[in-house]
Amino acid sequence: MSRADDENDGQATERVVIRDRRKIDVKGKDTTVTKEAEESQETRGGAHRAAEEPEDETIPTPGLGAELEALRTELEERTRDLQRVTAEYANYRKRVDRDRSAAAEQTTGAVLTALLPVLDDIDRAREHGDLVGPFAAVAESLGAVVGKLGLVAFGEKGDPFDPTRHEAVAHLTSADVTEPSCVEVMRRGYTLGERLLRPAMVAVADPE
After folding, report:
1. In a domain, 20, yes or no
2. Where is this region: Disordered (predicted)?
3. Is there a domain that residue 61 lies in?
4. Which helix (H) or strand (E) holds 133?
5. What is the CATH number of the domain that holds 191?
6. pLDDT at residue 44, as a whole number
C-alpha cells in the first residue's frame, strides 16, 4: 500500500469518527443533538415520569380523632379550673380588703370613742364662754384632727327626733312643733362613717 493510500485511509477514518459524533440516521441526514437539547429532553422526561408517578397518599392514623377530642376536653377542664381559681382569688382579695377596712375603722372608732368625754368638756366650756386663749387653740386643733379621722358630730336643737340616733331623756308637749322634735340637746352624738359611735342625748317635745 502506498503512502497516498495510507493518507486516504486516515482521512476516511477521521471522517467516520466525526460523522459518528454527529449521529447520522439511516437516511444519511445529519441529526446532531446538542448537549443543551439532550439535557432538555432528560428534564422533560424526568418531569413526565414524575407526573406519571402517583403521589404518596396520607393514610389516616387510627384513633387520632379520639386523642384530639380527649385533649380538647382536658383543655376545657383546665380552662374552667383556671377561671374558678381566678374568681376565688378575686373574691378573696375583696374579702381581705373589706376586713382590713373594717378593722381599721374599728380601731379608729375605739380611739375616737375614748376621746368623746374630752370633746364633751370642750362643748361645755364653749357654752359657758370659757373656751378662750391657748385652750381654744388646743380645742380647735383637736377638732380638726378628729374631723380628718372621719368623726362627725350631730344633734342640734330643732332636729326631728330619730330614735335610732337620739336618746330621749325627757318628754314634753309643745304647740310650736308639728312632729316629735329635739328641743334641747344635753350631749351631742357622733358618727364615724356609717357607724354610730354614740347617740345624742336630747329632750323631745311632742305636738299638743
Report:
1. no
2. 1-65
3. no
4. helix 133-148
5. 2.30.22.10
6. 55
* pLDDT computed for residue 10 by the predictor: 44
Residue 193 main-chain phi, psi, to 5 deg: 65, -125
Domain that holds residue 151: 72-207
Structure confidence by residue, pLDDT tens digits, 118-165: 999 999 999 888 888 898 999 999 999 999 999 999 999 999 999 999
pTM over 0.70: no
Return the C-alpha torsion angle 131, 135, 139, 140, nearest 10: 90
Residue 28 has pLDDT above 90, yes or no: no
Give 99's DSSP letter: H
User: Does the residue 164 lie in any domain?
Assistant: yes
Long-range contacts of 107-115 (CB under 8 A, 24+ apart): 108/149, 108/150, 108/192, 109/192, 109/195, 109/197, 111/149, 112/146, 112/149, 112/151, 112/190, 112/192, 112/197, 113/197, 113/198, 115/142, 115/146
